[in-house]
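Morning run. Coffee first, then this:
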Amino acid sequence: MMANMERFIGPRGRGEGEHWLTVSDLMAGLMMVFLFIAVSLMRSAFEVAVDYRDSRMAINDALEKEFRDDLERWDADINTDRLSFEFTGPDVLFEAGSEVMRPRFEEILEDFFPRYVKTLSEFLDSIEEIRVEGHTSSEWRNLPPEEAYFNNMRLSQGRTRSVLRHVVELPEVFKHRDWIKRHMVAVGYSSSQLKTTPGSNQEEKDASRRVEFRVLTNADTQIRRIIEQ
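And here it is:
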């Protein structure tokens, strides 16, 4: 029986060392595998981060080039950090407490949206989603804050649906309509993302009442997937 054991693990006094040498080699191999996986994930994350930066910069530059002469007359702005086009003139957008767009805002959208889609059409492979976002101030006819919040939620959601329906039905974007319906959504945020005076928490009510067209790139999704892994 002792002879059988020695054939299996080696002679006593020498087999133990050989056994631990084999285990240490195995551990070293596993460490190299884990290191390779870690380096691969870091490289993937870096490549996604570079793509994220480059795609956002390219889209932002294209939007600024197309619309820089229109921003002032539309009372609009391009938010580079959020990659969003913001309409910030509450007296132009909607009647107070109403989901119905003012005629002037309809005219602006009819000029803006076909050009917006044409500009973004160069980046369709990089775009995950376009959000029409509705934002309100915290006010609602002297109601308590909680009731005002939910009333403004319904209002902001209704307004974004009105905007989305109007732009999707424009004949100038007909050839992109299928893509638009797959990638555009309407979201109402009520007063959850207020504009405040720089350096303080003082709400700027007029600036808070706005409509945004915001681009989310594919890199946003890829980064989230890497983080989840």
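The chain has a mean pLDDT of 84. Good start to the day.
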